[in-house]
Specification:
13% of the residues lie in helices and 43% in strands. It has 157 residues and is mainly beta.
Length: 157
């Protein structure tokens, strides 16, 4: 059972994501869903599962990879769409992976999404849900593996 609560006009979720750089950190791997929205590879945390277990499971299920991961960001996001206020707590892990091991436009194992290597200098052209992480990547602010907490609001409670 995933950690998600939904009521009329409101949704709360807990997710994990991986910031996956290629070897020279010039590109980042993104997951494209529904042919319109991009996100960092990952997914929902299940009940009784910690964030490390969740990201390892998600990357294995979606990409059939196992990598060393370091928790980099805990992000609280408060996003607003025309019909829903969305509150998400995200755990984002940092890693690198050989770009040639995952070809561009690789379909997920379940076929529901596509994975694409995007040059870091082009990220501003892509609609990515985790905007504060996107900004950190674009500004080359991920320079070490110290843990950071980010709170990002598009609306007040």
């Amino acid at each position: 059972m995933m950690l998600t609560i939904q009521e009329e006009g409101m949704r709360f979720g807990v997710r994990v994501g991986a910031i996956i750089y290629n070897q020279d950190r010039s590109k980042i791997l993104l997951e494209k869903q529904n042919n319109k929205m991009y996100m960092f590879p990952g997914g929902r945390i299940d009940v009784h599962e910690d964030s490390q277990e969740a990201i390892e499971r998600e990357l294995h299920e979606e990409l059939n990879i196992r990598v060393d991961l370091k928790l980099k960001y805990i992000v609280e996001m408060f996003l607003k769409s025309p019909k829903t206020k969305y509150h998400e707590i995200g755990f984002y892990f940092l890693t690198q992976f050989d770009e040639l091991s995952i070809s561009n436009h690789f379909k997920s194992l379940d076929g529901n999404s596509e994975f694409v290597w995007i040059p870091v200098h082009e990220l501003d052209q892509y609609p990515i849900l985790a905007r504060p992480i996107k900004n950190k990547v674009m500004e080359h602010k991920i320079i070490d593996d110290s843990l950071e907490h980010i709170s990002y609001r598009e609306y007040e409670s």
